[in-house]
Amino acid sequence: MSHLEERFFNFVKKLGKFNKRSMFGGVGLFTEDAMFSLVTEGRLYVRGGGDVDDQFEKLGCERFKHVKKSTIATVNYFDISELFEKRPTLLLTMIKEAMDNSRAEREFKKSKENRRLRDLPNMQLTLERMIKKAGVPDVDSFFDVGAVSVFRKVNNTYGGDVDVKLLWKFAGAESGVHWTLLQEPTKKALLKQI
């Protein structure tokens, strides 16, 4: 750990507890499982969001660019390295706000209002699209209709040529488990219903 990282970690401790994890080739700082800061390649970054974006931009902070093989992704983390060295007291309230924003956004993403079909176990974007095309628009409808009926609808929509594994995936999603954990008696009972 560099001297800069150690100083920054001690600085952030003034705002409360946080955890560290490897992220983007550096170290991510998390509060209640919500990432709010990144330390990588000798630079310090803090998550934007809300009013913090404008403050960071007015202070000339650049956004973090994550370089992948052939693309560059610019994310909502601002380089605060110079601010940390020159104006740390100003930074303290901004980091606190970033921590609060991160926690609030994480809570919203976990909330029922924000759940998407692809967020359920066994699901992905292609299955979400299939289910929606079959007339089941959201998570609440999925649970109201039930795995067997959703499977029937998808099967009808796609011409009766759908793999039975989809039934297991839908049943697992409904139960909150990976489809491979469904027992044989459960699978047999599901098959009888279609």
Structure explained in plain terms:
This protein has 194 residues and is of the alpha+beta class. It is built from nine helices and six strands, in the order αββββαββααααααα. The protein has helices at 3-13, 51-58, 81-86, 88-110, 125-133, 139-145, 147-157, 165-175, 184-193; strands at 19-23, 26-31, 34-40, 43-47, 63-67, 72-79. The chain has a six-stranded antiparallel β-sheet with strand order 1-2-3-4-6-5. Helix 7 (147-157) packs antiparallel against helix 8 (165-175). The protein is elongated. It starts with a helix and ends with a helix. The relative contact order is 0.09. The mean pLDDT is 88.
Briefly summarize what is shown.
The protein has 194 residues and is α+β, with helices and mostly antiparallel strands. It has helices at 3-13, 51-58, 81-86, 88-110, 125-133, 139-145, 147-157, 165-175, 184-193; strands spanning 19-23, 26-31, 34-40, 43-47, 63-67, 72-79. The protein is 49% helix and 19% strand.
Fill in the keyword field for this structure.
six-stranded antiparallel sheet; elongated; 9 helices; 194 residues; alpha+beta; single chain
Topology:
Layout lengths: L2 H11 L5 E5 L2 E6 L2 E7 L2 E5 L3 H8 L4 E5 L4 E8 L1 H6 L1 H23 L14 H9 L5 H7 L1 H11 L7 H11 L8 H10 L1
Antiparallel strand pairs: 1-2, 2-3, 3-4, 4-6, 5-6
